[in-house]
Design goal:
- The chain is built from seven helices and no strands.
- The chain has about 140 residues and is an all-alpha fold.
- It has one domain.
- α2 packs across α6 (about 110-125) and α4 (about 55-75) packs across α5 (about 80-100).
Length: about 140
C-alpha cells in the first residue's frame, strides 16, 4: 500500500520536471501576455505604464522582450537564469505596482505573483539537464 500511495513506481526526474515547468511557464507567458504586447506595439509604445521611472518606451521594450523572447529562451533553456530573473522582477513590479493599485479584491495580481515564484524557482535551480544551457556549458 505504501508503494502505491508514495507513487514509488514512478521514477523521480527533477530535470524532466524543470523542462515541463520551463515550457509551461514560457508558453503561457508568450500566449497570454507577450504576444498581445507585440501586436499592440504602436498603441502601447508611448503609453505603457512607467512604473519604475525609466520611461514608457524603455519599460515597454524590456517587458515585451522578456515576455516574448525571454520566455522563448527559457523554454529552450538558453540563458535561463538571466531571463528568469528578469521575468521574476517584471512580475514582482506588475504585482506590486500595477495590479495592487489598479484592481481591488483578494485576487488582485494573483497570476503575476504565481508567475514570479515560478521564475524565481527557475532562477535558483537553473534550466536542468534538458536545456541548451547544459548543452553549451552555460
Amino acid at each position: 500500500m505504501r508503494f502505491l500511495l508514495g507513487l514509488h513506481f514512478i521514477p523521480l526526474d527533477v530535470d524532466l520536471g524543470l523542462l515541463l515547468l520551463r515550457v509551461a511557464l514560457a508558453g503561457l507567458m508568450i500566449v497570454f501576455h507577450g504576444w498581445e504586447k507585440l501586436m499592440t506595439a504602436r498603441r502601447q509604445f508611448h503609453t505603457f505604464p512607467n512604473l519604475i521611472g525609466i520611461g514608457s518606451e524603455l519599460s515597454y521594450v524590456l517587458v515585451a522582450w522578456l515576455e516574448v523572447f525571454g520566455a522563448a529562451f527559457i523554454a529552450l533553456g538558453l540563458l535561463t537564469r538571466l531571463h528568469a530573473l528578469g521575468l521574476a522582477f517584471t512580475m514582482f513590479i506588475a504585482w506590486l505596482l500595477w495590479h495592487k493599485r489598479r484592481f481591488t479584491g483578494p485576487n488582485a495580481g494573483e497570476m503575476a505573483f504565481a508567475y514570479m515564484f515560478g521564475y524565481l524557482l527557475l532562477f535558483f535551480t537553473g534550466a536542468g539537464r534538458y536545456s541548451l544551457d547544459r548543452l553549451l556549458g552555460l
